DNA sequence: TGACATCTATCTACTAGTAGGTAGAATAGA
DNA sequence: TCTATTCTACCTACTAGTAGATAGATGTCA
C-alpha cells in the first residue's frame, strides 16, 4: 500500500492529541487505532511498544519547540518582544483552548513514565530554560529592561509560572486563567525601561 | 471485629501516598489492597467506587490545608513570615522529597478525573489562592512590603509558580529545584520594606 | 441468662472489559 | 516474486466492580 509514512504520521498525530489531553497513562493503543482507522496490532508495526510511540511524540514536540524558538529569534530582535511572543506561543492559538504544554503535563506523570520518555521531557524543560535565560540575559545586558532576580532565576520562575498557569487553566477549563497569571508574572519579573 | 475505622484510615492513607506519587490513573485497588493487607473486594466495602476513595482523599487533603493555614495565621502575625511559612509548607519536610502537592498533581489529570474529584481539586486551588490573596493584601495594606502586582494577581502567580516548581523538582527528582524557583519567585513578587 | 437476630468486616470466586503485546496469514505494490 | 504493510486471532495480565458466604461482635427480648 505504501502508506507507511502516512500512517506513521497519523499515528503520531493522534497520539500527540491524546497525550496532550489525557497524559501518558490515560491513553491507549485502542484510542489511537480508532482515530487512525486501523487495528491496534498495526500500531505495533510502526511503534513496537507504547514507550517508543510516546518517546517519538515527545522528541518531535521538542524539535518543534527548538524550531519555534529559532523562528522567534529570527523574526524578533527585541528581547522583550521575544518574551511576549514566547508567552503567547505557550498560550496557544484561538482554537487550542485551554492551552497545555505536552511536556508540562508529562512532568506530572514522571514517576510512572518510561525512562526514555522522561529523558525527552527533561530535555524539553531544559531547552526552554536555556532559551529563556539567554533572552533574559540579553535584555538585561543591553539595558532594555531590568530583572527582579538573576536571568537564570527569572528563566526558571517564568517557566514554572507558565506551567502552573496552564495547569490552572486546564483545571478550571478556562483559558483566560492562563493570561491572568502570565501577564502579572511577566510584570513582576521584567521591568521595562 | 470493629476495625472499620482503622481499616478505612489505612486505606485512605495508602491511597493518599499512591495518588501523590502516581496520580489518579496510575494507581489501582490492587495497589491499595497490597499495602493495607486486605483483598481488593474489601476496599469496595469502605469505598464503593474508586471515585469515592479519591474524592475522600482529596477532601481530607483539602481540610488539612485549611487547618494548616489556620495554624499559620494563629502562630505568625507578620504577613511576610506567613508567606515564607506557606512556601516551606508546600516544600514539605526533610523526609518528603521531592515535594508535591496532591491537588497540583491531580490538576494535570483533570480531563480524565471523575467530576466529584475535580470539584475538590478546584476547591483546594481556590482555598489556597484566597488565603494568599488575604495575606498579601494585609502585607501591602499595612505597608510591611510592596507588591509588584495587585494582591490577587500576586496570589495567582505565587500559587502557579510554586506548582510549577514542584513539578520541576519531580521531573528532575531533585528537591533543591523547588527552592531554586520558590525563592526568586518570592523576591520578584514581594519587596520587603 | 440464653436464644435469636442483626451488623460489621472480611473473604473467595467471579464478571465483563481493557491493557499492551505477539504470531502468522493476507494483501498489495514494485 | 519480494517486501512492506495491515490484518485476524490470540495471549497474558490487569482493571473496577459484584455476588454470596462467613466469622465474630453486638443488640434485643422473653
What is the strand and helix layout of this fold?
Two copies of one chain form a homodimer.
Chain A: H1 4-22, H2 29-36, H3 40-46, H4 50-75, H5 79-91, H6 102-109, H7 115-141, E1 145-147, H8 151-171, H9 176-189, E2 190-192
Helix pairs in contact in A: 1-2, 1-4, 4-7, 5-7, 6-7, 7-8, 8-9
Chain A binds a DNA duplex (30 and 30 nucleotides) through helix 3.
Please give a structural write-up.
The structure is a homodimer of 193-residue chains. Chain A is mostly helical and 193 residues long. Chain A has two domains: 1-48, Orthogonal Bundle (Arc Repressor Mutant, subunit A), CATH 1.10.10.60; 50-192, Tetracycline Repressor, domain 2, CATH 1.10.357. Helix content of chain A is 74%, strand content 3%. Chain A contains nine helices and two strands; from the N terminus they run αααααααβααβ. Chain A has helices spanning 4-22, 29-36, 40-46, 50-75, 79-91, 102-109, 115-141, 151-171, 176-189; strands at residues 145-147, 190-192. In chain A, strands 1-2 form a two-stranded antiparallel sheet. The longest helix of chain A has 27 residues, at 115-141. The model of chain A has no long low-confidence stretch (mean pLDDT 92). The interface between A and B is large, with 46 and 46 residues.
Key features?
mainly alpha; Tetracycline Repressor, domain 2; two-stranded antiparallel sheet; 9 helices; 2 domains; 3% strand; Arc Repressor Mutant, subunit A; 193 residues; homodimer; DNA-binding
Q: Which parts of chain A are unreliable, with pLDDT below 50 for 5 consecutive residues or more?
A: none
Order of helices and strands of chain A: HHHHHHHEHHE
Helix content of chain A: over 70%
CATH superfamily of the largest domain in chain A: Tetracycline Repressor, domain 2
Strand order across the biggest sheet of chain A? 1-2
How large is the share of residues in beta strands of chain A?
under 5%
User: What do we call the CATH topology of the largest domain in chain A?
Assistant: Tetracycline Repressor, domain 2
User: Mind telling me the CATH class of the largest domain in chain A?
Assistant: Mainly Alpha
- Determine the mean pLDDT of chain A: 92
